[in-house]
Amino acid sequence: MSTVTSRPALGSKRLPPAWRIALSRGRLEIKVFFRERDAVVFGFALPIVFVALFGAIFGNEPIGHGYTYVQVLVPSMLVMGVASSSLVNLGIWITSDREDGTLRRLYLSPMPRMAYFVGKIIMMVVVGALETVLLVGVGVLAYGVELPPTGEKWLIGIGMMLLSFAVFGVLGVAVSSLPRSARSAPAVINFPVLVLYFVSGVFLPYNQLPGWLQQIGAVFPLKWMVQGFQSAFLPDDLALSWPTHEWEHGRIVLVLLAWLVIGLVICLTTFRWKDRRHG
Amino acid sequence: MTVTQRARTGRATTDAVIEVSGLRKRYGDVTAVDGIDFDVRRGEVFAILGPNGAGKTTTVEILEGYRKRDAGEVRVLGEDPANAGLAWRARIGVVLQDATDVVELTVQEVVEHFAGYYPNPRDPEEVCSLVGLDEVRRTRVRKLSGGQRRRLDVALGMVGNPELLFLDEPTTGFDPKARRQFWDLVRALSAEGTTVVLTTHYLDEAEALANRIAVIARGRIVALDRPGDLGGRRQGLATVHWLDDGVERVVETAEPTRLVTELAARFGGEVPQLSVHRPTLEDIYLDLIGRRGDADVAEVAGRDNGSLGGDAATERVVEEETA
Question: What is the pTM of this model?
Fold first, then answer.
């Protein structure tokens, strides 16, 4: 411990490029995610377990047009998968980063500020993409879910995926300022999200909700994501199960972009590198 | 101890790395820092010593650019920390006090990752062995002992090869051996030319490491000097005790030798129960922070104590007679 041999100062004193630090943060975040077994099991596996459970319970119950409950459920579950790997994940992890000294250490280091967020986004996209593949895989293999039939539907699916990640990503950062402590974060963040799953048609078909619940659900982005993902996986006949009998792609994009802007504004105005103790 | 001098060409060794004047910070009604001034010179180990709640951590956090000040001028490495950029951050190192982050990564992974933030980092393996984490390099941080965890924080503070290193109560929780090793490490870094700002409530730590000590109490610097000169230690009065006709006599004097010579003449040889006592650094420190006479004086050198020293500094008794 007492021998110090310093390296000679190199000629270049330039900071490492920001993209390299951002990639390095992304690698680190992914590594940490998969080492946190609790998070992997409960966050990551939950939508898959739900599909398996609902599949076993309602199995091949037809819901019309020759489609079964599970075939409709899988696109909705994608919304849950994206929400849990982005919105819930970021909200809880950033709260804990704020409390355990991660944010303080990074703030005091020469890391470019954006590298932290890019690292989280990399983690979120990798985890979310894996989640999507597993969910769709289980649906296709076990419950006869069909992949999007046309190139156009694939594009809609991928577009919905990107838009959903963007919206939930900024909202995840935004909600990270809500919990008072890392211990309360899972409860504080999961509660509203679980309620939204029910009023957005994730678990139950949206058209079975009472009108006033439908209107509450329509304010939030999840309902529009469910609608969008269904439009990618299901034939256009099933748009009849939505109030306007259409997929409403234009309105979906508008609502999600509005939420993206709202989320960004909240992030920019409320994000704190310091916890409450360090005011 | 092998120390390779770091070439810092073009820089004088006496210029100020930190300049602070009139620094103030309040939290609501509480004034944490109440107008302090000091400079820290390049290559110096500068200790900020004081009881808990005295304003040490607030001061250091302002210097690190982590906290905003309410008033005063601060220059650190030539810049105002409140507006300094990433290039400035790459030149300072901060050892965190109570972090519990990165627990799922191994020591090696963490040190390597943070080395990647700096333009001119130290070799991560070398840093691990410098702080004594060689044997646990492949261990997850979660499994480290408290002292090892703190040493990892030290490793992360120095991996960027900083010109200026902030150590905020770095040895809290260390066992005596680890503390000595840590002191050797600070001395080695200092010998290399790293400027070190150290806050501590351990008197012996400040005395062992610092070139100069600022004693801070209730948000003010109450003394700032080399450890040997602190609080007028060299000129300090000596206390002479003796027994005169069954009565205990205590005299504080600047000339104890003359007094003892006179006493020896008067008693014609041996003076009953004679003792001459000079204030230790601890005596001086306790006087400075106004804690002398408090029941928990012994706490100062050791454990945490949340309370601030009271104002009840008792006066030194001169020529007091006790039956």
Answer: 0.82
